[in-house]
Amino acid sequence: MHFEILVEGKTELTALSILMPKIVGVYGEPHTWKIHKHRGIGKLPTDPQIRPNPQDMTLLHQLPAKLRAYAKNIDEQRVVVVLLDLDDKNPFTFHQQLTSLVNYCQQPLEVKFQFAVEELEAWYLGDIAALQQFNPKIKSQVLEQYQQDSICGTWEILAEADEPAVLKSKKRSALVLDKKKEWAKKIPLHMEVIHNQSPSFQGFVSCLKRYM
């Protein structure tokens, strides 16, 4: 099976590039994948049928057109997987909005929508052993207070445990973005798929394994 995976940005691309072989095995033996990054999550266009603005490369803005393009080129050995941060969105309503986009495709399309709840850092927090390997001095008392996949400011909790000074910066500051890049590059190296306690991570794993 070939997996076309659409993600919000560079950190998801980095993390999944490390995690995919752990989930589905060595690339090409027999499964393959391609991960497509975007410039953030963005918003769904008011009219999903319109041509997207080429200046807006956010995932949701480009998504309807990308799904239509995939549907024009049917491949029974391909599945499209869209990974999004749930943030504070209602999962049922958001999933309905996303699945409705398939109605604008001219042919049936095998597409699955998966969420990182609340955001990608929830997947890291699902594996405390990996976090301790990443940073032996990480604050275990902070990690132990986290409730898996809760909507609570996930990246802030990880920052508080790993490097509290980061919390003094704004969410989109260079310092925070650099820290997120570091997490994406280093933490997945230590993650064990079967031991991860994040329900949304295991949902993503199960989604892929259905096609193996």
Describe the structure.
This protein has a 4-stranded parallel β-sheet with strand order 2-1-3-4, with helices on both faces. The mean pLDDT is 96. Helix 1 packs parallel to helix 8. It is globular. It is an alpha/beta fold and 212 residues long. The chain folds into 2 domains: 2-119 and 198-209, Rossmann fold; 121-190, no CATH class. The protein has 9 helices and 4 strands. The protein is 42% helix and 11% strand. The chain starts with a strand and ends with a helix. InterPro entries: DUF4276.
Residues in β-strands, percent? 5-15%
Number of helices: 9
Structural class: alpha/beta
Structurally, the number of domains stands at: 2
InterPro entries: DUF4276 (IPR025455)
Pfam families: DUF4276 (PF14103)
Protein name: DUF4276 domain-containing protein
Features:
single chain; alpha/beta; globular; 212 residues; 9 helices; 2 domains; four-stranded parallel beta sheet; DUF4276 domain-containing protein; DUF4276; Rossmann fold
